[in-house]
Amino acid sequence: MIDHNTFKKTLAQALAVDEVRIDTFYELLEFKELKRKEFLIQQYEFCNFIGFVIKGTLRTFYINEEGCEINFLFHFHNRLEDMGFTDFESFLLQEKAKLNIQALEKSYVALISRKNCMELTHSDEYWQVFGRRMTEIVYLAAKHRIEELLYFTPENRYLKLLENYPEIVLKFPQKYIASYLGIQPQSLSRIRRRLMR
User: Fold this and answer.
1) Domains in the chain and their CATH numbers?
2) Which of 22, 36, 53, 110 could form a disulfide with 77 if both were Cys (CB 3.0 to 4.6 A apart)?
3) How far apart are CA 169 and CA 58, in angstroms?
4) pTM value surpassing 0.70
5) pLDDT in tens, 168-191
6) What is the chain's mean pLDDT, rounded?
């Protein structure tokens, strides 16, 4: 069951939309329940939405040249900066998606279609600024993720993951966590053993 009032306030806070305008945005959302392992989008489909996690956890991943799944982002309902998801390149350019977005557990999401989002951002100046802010949020999330991979050791990435997402270690397979960190599961096991000493 979705508590619409609570989610609406959370969404307004996450998107920095005032309480008067959030109703306009909220009316454009489609709500969906996802089963564990259900996909919202898969590689080579077209991404026609921006989504927000109401309850549950999703992952964004791609499949590399060797056919391995590489987790790029996790999306949680209880973290404002992580609740949004999309394949933004596919969304903006209407090209086939390079990313997959999948529920890791039973989840509830809210989606705004590309059509509704474009109409909204063209309706007045307030929503144009909102559209730019959405682009900045997506860009910065990707930039921070890339910087993590470039500048931090696997052990420091793991410690940061534990600090920011302690529940992930308990809830999801080690192979998902290892691929998110950019390492093999065996390397993650070694890091865990070293930290337990």
Assistant:
1) 4-125 (2.60.120.10)
2) 53
3) 14
4) yes
5) 888 889 999 999 999 999 999 999
6) 92
